[in-house]
Amino acid sequence: MQVQHYERVPQNPVNMPGAQGCAIRWLVGPDQGAPNFAMRQFEVSVGGHTPQHTHPYEHEVYVLEGRGVARSGDAEQPLRGGDVVYVAPNEVHQFRNTGDTPFKFLCLVPNVALEKQVAVAPECDS
Amino acid sequence: MQVQHYERVPQNPVNMPGAQGCAIRWLVGPDQGAPNFAMRQFEVSVGGHTPQHTHPYEHEVYVLEGRGVARSGDAEQPLRGGDVVYVAPNEVHQFRNTGDTPFKFLCLVPNVALEKQVAVAPECDS
Fold first, then answer.
1. I want to staple A85 with a disulfide (CB 3.0 to 4.6 A). Which of A61, A126, B61, B83 is the partner?
2. Is residue B125 part of a domain?
3. Are A105 and A93 in contact (CB under 8 A)?
4. Helix, strand, or coil here: A31?
5. Would the CB atoms of A39 and B9 count as touching at under 8 Å?
6. CA distance B58 to chain A (A)
């Protein structure tokens, strides 16, 4: 059993086209050998956003801190700590920080996402 | 895209042998049609614990609130908000509230766990 605080996990900038002010921590992923899915933590700085994109697998998201929105096309839904977001496969989505503090959330993906390198190859930009 | 606060998700007692004072919310699961894995939230009351058990798939855990320990056999590791736990397949594990407030954490499982009905059929008791 491996235990560590998320702040001890290295954080790296998200350099995908369409991302602005985003950093990622792989909390549970390939390094742990998890066979089915991966837990990542995203931190979006004030004014920042993830790419607006789509991919053929789901996201399961849990908002930890800050204020933001989940955008899908023209629709936006506000987000705060404790909110849960399910993004179905092939659904266009984007997360934006609309507050004045870092916007932090967990975003889990199945391992098929790793094979497809979604973290560095969005299908469309914002 | 589905958004809801975790507190609006129905909470049910965990009636597995070996569980004490545990309740579960299925934040993302079969109702949402997620194809690969499920996000559950557990709330363990003061003095309570999950069953001590093992199963052939992983857990990915994120501690939200309260104080507790992750026990694996004779080993215990303290837990607090922001801690991440990876439980590998076939690893014995148990989560215990050691604080004086509810101990809340996310615990994600691959869908194979649903087929095996682990939520109601632990392989061994505490």
1. A61
2. no
3. no
4. helix
5. no
6. 7
